[in-house]
Amino acid sequence: MTSMTSLISGLFRQRNRNVYLATGISLLVLLVTAGYTLLHGLSLSNIGGDYGVIMTLAMIAMLFILAVQNERVWTHNSYRLIPISDTKLYIGNMIATILSFIYFSVIQIVILIICNIGSYSVFGSISNHELLVLSSGSLMFILSFTFVWVFISMVNLILKSIAAFLPEIRQRLFRVLISLGVVVVVLYIFNTIEGFFGKFALQSHSLNFNGSADINLRISEVFGVGTLYFAVIIVIMSLINIYLLEHWVETKTTTN
Amino acid sequence: MTELLSIENLTYRRNLRTILTNLSLTLNDNQIVGLLGANGAGKTTLMRLIAGSAVNYRGSISINGKNTGSERKSMVSFSAQLEGVNENLKLIKIADYFNHVFPDFEMNDFEKLAANLSIDLDQHFISLSKGNRQKFVMAITLAKHAKLYLLDEPFNGIDSMSRKKIVASIIEWKPEDATILISDHHVTDIANLLDAVAIVKDHTVVTQKSADEIREENGQSIETFYESFYEEEGTKND
pLDDT-based confidence at A132, cuts 50/70/90? Predict the structure, then answer.
């Protein structure tokens, strides 16, 4: 049987090809921006700000690139035939995607810091409370991205499961109609769950910023509740995804 | 001989179509078995079910007594396992991925197989001709040390020289106790390789016989024996 470590590192290495490609493209855009700035006789003092915009766009693009790579695993033999249980394959695939995104984010932040050298000190004067906000915020940020991948997987896996029961003719038409139906139903269920947890979160943490004595602690509390909320939703959706993967979702067929 | 694969009452439906019905099949170890049948008979589906690519079936499939999907996957090497690889990668990178995630993959064996089949590992997968693609698929499949090899139409659309090289590789690289299930609808391509045949027709395995039985008891070649199952249908169609 394949170990979880081998699976994660194998998938992580595959995804890194796109991480390096996206990093290369964002650096190229930065160079073009810097060249354009210099050609027009302007100062490079705002290059850090420019890279902030490039980085945001690159991260949104990476979110979707990784989603595509994540989804390929559920329906292709080169992944599904790995001798490991579907539960472990699901968890390993998600972890590899999250790690690739963290890796990409770290590279982007390093480039951003380099672009900002001389402008201001980024970590020089961070207090413990600010560090707490930064770390709890980062965790919630990663979980919110994980939620997107898990959500996309759920819609995709539900669609694949239903498609197996559709007649082969007019599959495309049925799929479009079912896709719309599935998205509406999933969003409705998600809103119901969100309402329930939102109420629960508000009841347990009445957030009051008036005191501002320790606003950073309050913000970290908000992030903490958000993190918990995302974690619960991700676990529930993942259980559904694993069930679908184990019992209904098959790999694509190619006919000889 | 020990029983390796046991399939009982397998039924598989997809897209409101019955593909396999009440299919039973038993394979012993150390054999090369031909899975014969017309186009669309369900040979590829049967292999997908054995390998674990298709999951929604009724009945039982076990290899060496193990019937969970992951256990079966650990004992099978399926020629369709390259589906979904990044085709822009170099062949050596694809082999490296297999070496990383499949514990039974032997990189040294793969390199020797690739050399035997004259495959240049610095080529990109996407640039391969159909024949070279099949040779690469065979090198990856045979480089896994499995109990059961599932070769789905390995000679489809390739020239006679490549076919000879692939046949030589199958004979040379098959582990002694392993069984190979090889599907084809051009029986002449594989007839000389086979120890036994299983014929798929009407959504099920209609017969399973050893090559010796066919030759001695029926006095037929494997090709004639196989064609006799489709003759009646052909006559009706005429």
Answer: confident
Identify the closest residue of chain A to B137 by CA–CA distance.
A78
| Judgement on whether residues A26 and A102 belong to the same structural domain of the protein | yes
Distance CA A183, CA B169 (A): 50
Structure tokens belonging to residue B145: 């040390």
B194 near B32, Cβ under 8 Å? yes
Q: How far apart are CA A82 and CA A79, in angstroms?
A: 6
Contacts with B, A 19-48, CB within 8 Å: none
Tell me whether A167 touches chain B (CB under 8 Å).
yes
Interface A–B counts its CB contacts (< 8 A) at 108
Compute chain A's Rg from CA coordinates.
Answer: 22
CA separation for the pair A94, A90 (Å, rounded): 6
Query: Would you say the C-alpha torsion B49, B54, B58, B62 has a positive or negative sign?
Result: positive
Instruction: Please tell me which of the candidates A10, A164, A166 has its beta carbon nearest to residue B101.
Output: A10
- How many structural domains does chain A have? 2
Beta bridge partners of B90: B124
Averaged confidence pLDDT in chain B: 90
Contacts of B73 in chain A (CB under 8 A): 81-84
Nearest CA distance, B205 vs chain A (angstrom): 20
Judge: B70–A164 Cβ closer than 8 Å, yes or no.
no
The full set of domains in chain B, from first to last, is 3-237 (3.40.50.300)
Kindly determine whether residue A72 and residue B55, on different chains, have CB atoms separated by under 8 Å.
Answer: no
pLDDT at residue A165 in the model: 87
Give the pairing of strands B204-210 and B196-201: antiparallel
- Which residues span the domain enclosing A109? 1-125
**What residues form DSSP beta bridges with B207?**
B199
CB < 8 Å to B74, chain A: 1, 83
